[in-house]
């Protein structure tokens, strides 16, 4: 039996008369074309959204935006690869009507319009809201660390620079001692060794001088780190390793796992970012109240209080912190607060009613203790290693106690958070292969992630309702 064979390459074929015939009716490029044409690019902030009357004509920003949306949707982000695809990809030839911008023009468009891509992302969020794709009841907020264009070896903290300088000083001292021995004729290596040592000393001194200059710069600026390739990138702990990159924050609606709000920061932790992220998502969804769930990395009293003030009901698990937990002693949860008496009842049944106010970095807290009760307590060894146990209470800790009661009444909400917010992160890093940024600088990285989040949302919406319904919603 013969194989299926193709036609001869020199055979004349009757091809379709139009490129239109090569693009399927349900191809995503048809929605990209309609969606971008419906946008007000001038209002979004794109440069040259109105052509100039004089000078050499440039590419329309709408065409360049279509090229990028298609590229990010199909895992093609490099400007050089986009240039190649525009010459050979039939869908792109149809979408751009045969335009073939060079890679420099493509790269410059993303760089020059970096502040405008967030508006395009929000426009698609509004479209999804119009299609009732958001439940608008529960948000899952989380952050992920994405690598920057900066090798870990080109990122320096104050401690790292201090260690390098101390090691350089020690190395220099050893080299100088050996050089003195050669000068006195006590070393058998001869003149050649002395010349080699002199060259090493010059290199170490040069490197030490550069490190000292960086340490001085860090001290003067108040920053904790400096990165040489991407100045805005920071070293961040991810699991068991440290990554030099950025912290991408998202708020995901629980109904269809669509991203409602996203932004990128170079903050090393998520603490303090819940209210701003959930608040922006609440505004985008147009609701008066909404619930937001996040992991324990967001546990911060002032941030939880800001959520409640903004109409957001937070659910954040309390982390187990402090030396008592590490030493196997009673955690703070074993001390029960009595609001009527404004005192704590300890595990031994004693009342801690001696109070001291303190202010640390604007954080007002009250210490509760009972030195007399601790002195005669039979279980003191399980409670504290000091003379007596002090319990700190934030002045507005009732906010955290209300949240603890909500979590006890709705324990499954933390599992919902995990399955909701990990879906976009897994898709972005694995399926979309976008776990590393291509651009340098915080503003440019934010533009990249806006395109990434938009491509994720577009793919989800296509899966949920399909291309024809999306096109119909834009045209309605």
Characterise this structure.
The model has no long low-confidence stretch (mean pLDDT 90). The strands form four sheets. Strands 1, 4, 5, 6, 7 and 8 form a six-stranded mixed beta sheet that branches. The chain has a three-stranded antiparallel beta sheet with strand order 9-10-11, with no helix packed on it. The chain is built from 17 helices and 14 strands. Helix 1 packs parallel to helix 17 (467-475). With 476 residues, it is an alpha+beta fold.
Question: What's the structural blueprint in terms of helices and strands?
Answer:
Layout: H1 28-38, H2 41-44, H3 61-73, H4 79-88, H5 90-96, H6 103-112, H7 117-130, E1 138-147, E2 155-157, H8 158-183, H9 191-221, E3 225-227, E4 234-238, E5 241-253, E6 258-265, H10 274-285, E7 290-294, H11 301-309, E8 312-316, H12 323-326, E9 336-338, E10 343-345, E11 351-352, E12 354-360, E13 363-369, H13 371-375, E14 391-394, H14 398-409, H15 413-431, H16 442-465, H17 467-475
Parallel strand pairs: 1-7, 7-8
Antiparallel strand pairs: 1-5, 2-3, 4-5, 5-6, 9-10, 10-11, 12-13, 13-14
Helix pairs in contact: 1-3, 1-17, 3-16, 4-5, 4-6, 7-16, 8-9, 10-11
Give me the number of helical elements: 17
- Span between termini: 55 Å
Structural class: alpha+beta
> What is the averaged pLDDT score?
90
